[in-house]
Amino acid sequence: LKTNTLFLKGALYYFEIEEGLWVMISDCHYKTNLAFINKDQIVTKSFYNLSYISYSENSERKGNLNGHTIIDNIWTLYHPGEELNAYQYKDTSNLVICFSFGEDWLERNFSISKLDNNHPLKVLFDSELKYNPFIRNPVVDARFKLEQLFLGIKSINQGESAKFLFKSKALSLIGEFFEGITRDLTDINFSVEDKRIMIRIIDYLENNLLKDFPGISFLANYTNTSPTKVKTLFKQWFRISTLKWFRAKQMDLAMKLLKEDKIKVKDLAFTMGYTNASKFTLAFKNYHNTNPSNV
Question: What is the C-alpha separation between 242 and 229, in angstroms, rounded?
């Protein structure tokens, strides 16, 4: 399916990999702010949806999904019945893959009903959390593999060999995801409440990168938890402190804004909470191995 309207330009491809397992890949550029309301829940009512969203470097803002800012370049699992209402911003572009599968496919491939209650997959699919992001990406070079699948699905009608190769790559990708989450249990072991806290914190920080770090006490109050809890959860999930994670995200955004020549170094430094341009320049150089004046 291809479209080029006043609202968006893009393409969407879908394919049944095997009985009970579908894949959808889309590549879209949004010409205006767009809301997608899932009224009938044809897909989401009976299927789990495992998605990976990657925005282009030129996209200043990430979209919104079910009230949450979309976290870029991570996997998210949506349980059956989750509505998946999305909002995308003008002048953004993203590449999305979504695997849709039902209970029968899960049982046929993983025998979920026979697994011990403490098995990672059993815990995952029995979770009360219907919106489940995997912050520690279980797939190596996921963006590159998604791009390769996108090329493959576009040429899938070229013959049986093209279909076979695409199926193999798609199954390999979803297999790597499941293998990854059972090997690194960080995401699985977080309680529903702890994950909700982390999602709120990430939502807030991602939307306030052009401000100074709000502080642990603020984030604790914002999520109705303790400062110690915030620091512990972040350290467990990202292996670095909340401040270091925030500063790294700021440096990524700073590089993007400077490349686009949208702001002066001095103004960017003060906007991001640095007391002077020299301190910002030092932080930028330590992170990117170059001065902001060279960008």
Answer: 11
Length of the chain: 295
| Pairing label, strands 68-69, 2-4 | unpaired
- How far apart (Å, rounded) are the C-alpha atoms in residues 247 and 213? 8
Q: Is 81 left (phi over 0), alpha (psi -120 to 50) or beta?
A: left
Q: Look at residues 26, 87, 88 and name the one whose alpha carbon lies nearest to residue 52.
A: 26
Q: CA dihedral in degrees (127, 231, 68, 79; nearest 10)?
A: -10
pTM: 0.76
Q: What is the pLDDT of residues 218-257, one digit of tens each?
A: 999 999 999 999 999 988 888 899 999 999 999 998 998 8
The DSSP code for 288 is H
Q: How far apart are CA 79 and CA 61, in angstroms?
A: 26
Q: What is the pLDDT of residues 197-222, one digit of tens each?
A: 888 898 889 889 999 999 999 999 99
H or E element at residue 154: helix 142-154
Phi, psi of 19 (to 5 degrees): -55, 120
Tokens for 186? 């960080």
Coil/strand/helix, residue 13: strand
Q: Check if the beta carbon of residue 269 is closer than 8 Å to that of residue 283.
A: no
Pick left, alpha or beta for residue 261 (phi over 0 → left; psi -120 to 50 → alpha; otherwise beta).
left
